[in-house]
Specification:
about 400 residues; Beta-lactamase; 3-stranded mixed sheet; 9 helices; globular
Length: about 400
């Protein structure tokens, strides 16, 4: 990519404006990495520069990885996409639906109308939600004495459904259960399973639930965007000896490692001669798997954790077995039916199978869907496609 300086300028200027403390971004096509850049600081309270090998909490970018592991279980014939999972994971059997609260402030629960399937989990249509975007979940946690999801305690998974399985998209703890399913069917803990069957084959040596001693000095600090817009370093870390590995958001990684995962998806399940998924599994991870249901806006009820969040407002979005899909092309950017998602600490990626390109952009800022980071993400993506267009015109 001959116009690297244009992409560099987008990223560098964001750090100079203090829109972000620091940023690492990478892009690849079919042939390999075509852009990489690191700018700004890992930690505004220290002097360490952001580097390509900086380690980030990638939060919900974990979901696509664990979804891929669940698809490996399907490939092996260990579970069906539309099978009732209650018999395999008793925690998913007879999960009640919350319908509100009685006069005494107790939850009104009823049985769910139908079983939970892997399709429901992988498309976020099982009826589970997160406390950040659903007030009833937070209220239920308080009522029942349940910890929040980032505690990585099993009790955190005891929340009720807020809708019947298969009736609507509701972003929640689905992939934590997909992780539990992988553990049950493989006989391995999730960290070991992912290491053996995804990370090691792909050479993703910097990705895991536990921050290694050699990674600590390279860890990016989390920052909070204060109400006045100023960024301040904060202490934030996922439990390092968790009761369960959070399949929905527990991984730490680097831009290079996550881009490797994206390249495997771009390559129909293979990269560097290593096949991690069958092409038909990847095809299913690139297609709408929720029927007529649609992805809806995330409206925050926890402003320290998230802003209201919606990618491509006004466009119909669908969910595959692992990713959100934009159903229309984004002008000057990704093609229709590209794959994407994000992490709570403002980490983002996209995979565009039509244009044969994928990108990752990582910061560490709360709350999620930070306006300045989203503007940077847009500008970065536009610069990437402009450079690719320029290359093709030169050729």
């Amino acid at each position: 990519m001959s116009t690297h300086h244009a992409i560099d300028a987008v990223l560098k200027s964001a750090t100079e404006r203090r829109d972000v403390p620091g940023v690492v971004a990478m892009v690849a096509d079919d042939r390999g990495v075509i852009y990489q850049g690191a700018f700004g600081k890992r930690d505004l309270g220290a002097d360490a520069a952001m580097t390509m090998d900086t380690v980030f909490w990638i939060a919900s970018m974990t979901k696509a990885v664990v979804s891929a592991a669940a698809m490996q279980m399907v490939e092996q014939g260990k579970v069906g996409i539309d099978q009732d999972l209650g018999a395999i994971l008793p925690a998913l059997a007879d999960r009640p639906v919350i319908e509100g609260w009685d006069a005494e402030g107790k939850p009104r629960l009823r049985p769910a109308r139908g079983p939970i399937t892997l399709r429901h989990l992988l498309t976020h249509t099982a009826g589970f939600s997160y406390e950040m975007w659903n007030a009833d979940i937070g209220r239920y946690q308080a009522h029942a004495g349940l910890p929040g999801i980032t505690s990585c305690e099993n009790k955190a998974l005891e929340t009720p459904l807020i809708a019947d399985p298969g009736t609507r998209w509701e972003y929640g703890i689905n992939i934590d259960f997909a992780g539990k399913l992988v553990e049950k069917l493989s006989g391995q803990r999730l960290d070991a399973y992912l290491q053996d069957h995804i990370f090691a084959p792909l050479g993703m040596s910097e990705t895991g639930f536990k921050i290694r001693d050699d990674q600590r000095p390279r860890l990016a600090r989390m920052h909070a965007r204060l109400p006045d817009g100023v960024l301040a370093p904060i202490d934030f870390e996922i439990p390092q000896d968790p009761e369960f590995h959070m399949g929905g958001g527990g991984l730490y990684s680097t831009a290079g490692d996550y881009l490797t995962f994206c390249r495997m998806i771009l390559g129909d399940g293979s990269l560097g001669g290593k096949q991690v998924l069958k092409p038909e599994s990847v095809a299913a991870m690139r297609e709408n798997q929720m029927g007529d249901l649609v992805v809806t806006r995330l409206v925050t009820v926890a402003e320290a954790a998230s802003n209201d969040a919606e990618f491509f407002p006004g466009m119909v979005k669908k969910w595959s077995f692992g990713f959100m899909l934009n159903t229309e092309a984004v002008p000057a950017r990704r093609a229709a039916n590209s794959l994407t998602w994000a992490g709570l600490g403002n980490t983002y990626f996209w995979i565009d199978p039509t244009s044969r390109v994928c990108g990752v952009i990582l910061t560490q800022i709360l709350p999620f869907a930070d306006a300045k980071v989203l503007a940077l993400y847009d500008a970065f993506e536009e610069a990437v496609y402009a450079a690719r267009g320029g290359e093709r015109r030169v050729a």
